[in-house]
Every structure is written in structure tokens, then in C-alpha cells.
Amino acid sequence: MRLRVVRVKDEIPKLKPNERMVHLAFRPTMVDIVNLVGRCPGLEAVQIPLSRHRKLPSDTRRILEVRGIDLLAGDARSHKSDTGEYVVVDEVVIEEIKEMVSEGVGAEEVVARVQRTARLAPDLIRYIIKTSI
Questions:
Q1: How far apart are CA 49 and CA 75, in angstroms?
Q2: Residue 66 DSSP SS3
Q3: Residues 110, 49: one domain?
Q4: pLDDT tens, per residue, the chain with 133 residues
Q5: Is the Cβ–Cβ distance between 69 and 37 less than 8 Å?
Q6: 38 DSSP 8-state letter
Q7: 107 and 72 in one domain?
Q8: ∠ CA 89-90-94, rounded to 5°
Q9: What total number of domains does the chain contain?
């Protein structure tokens, strides 16, 4: 699983239309979200840093909700300018999450365990749980 890190809104028109998960490292406006959804019709999740997630207007949230796109809060480990354009969640971590879920471990316990070892945002871990069931 990988998230495309978008550092500035000028990158939105350059995104590949098949992007499924995007991390927005800037404060998006409603126009930015509309442009993102239009550019990536198969978008499944958008991650926004926690500080910006709290202040996101309800109209912008509603656009994502209506389209069935999950809005996640959290930081991408590699959104600094000297790193790649994708954050990759290791397949081993995804398998570990699936295994815990199949063993009946509660979602919040899975989040706590994985967050300690994999340095992933809690919302991203919950999203992986949701999509792997």
C-alpha cells in the first residue's frame, strides 16, 4: 500500500489518474479537493495532517463523504522535500494487521500495537483494518 504525498496544490494536476491514496501536506481548500477528486476518479482515501484535519470545513468533508472517500488524519513520515513522492506501508505490516484482526484482537489494540512498531498514523491503521476485512 502506498500513499502519494502531495506537498503543494500545484502538484494536483500532475497526479496520475489511478492514484488511490493521497497525503496532502498542505492545507487544502474545497477547490483543491474538487480538483483532486476530478483528477483521481478512483481515489479511496485522503490523509491530511492532524492540525489541518481539525480545521477542514464541513463542506470539504462532505465532498469526500459523498464520493465514498475516507478522510484520514495523520502525518506522512516522508513528506519532507528531500524524500520520495510516496510513503509505502510495508506488506509485512499489513499482514501483521490482518493476522491480529483474524485472531480477534480489537481494533484499538491493533492500532496501539502497530503504532508503536510501524510509526503509522492511527487513522491509517484503522483504514487498513477496514479495507482488509
A1: 5
A2: helix
A3: no
A4: 999 999 999 999 999 999 999 999 999 999 999 999 999 999 999 999 988 888 899 999 999 999 999 999 998 764 344 457 888 899 999 999 999 999 999 999 999 999 988 888 999 999 999 998 7
A5: yes
A6: H
A7: no
A8: 85
A9: 2
Closest CA to 129 of 117, 54, 18, 104: 104
Residue 47 domain boundaries: 2-87
Predicted model pTM? 0.88
- Runs of H (alpha helix) within the chain: 30-39, 50-53, 58-66, 91-102, 107-118, 122-132
Same domain, 12 and 63: yes
Domain shared by 8 and 22, yes or no: yes
Distance of CA 53 to the CA centre of its chain: 12
- Distance (Å) of CA 31 to CA 27, 57, 67, 116, 121: 11, 12, 15, 36, 26
Verify that 38 and 102 share a domain, yes or no.
no
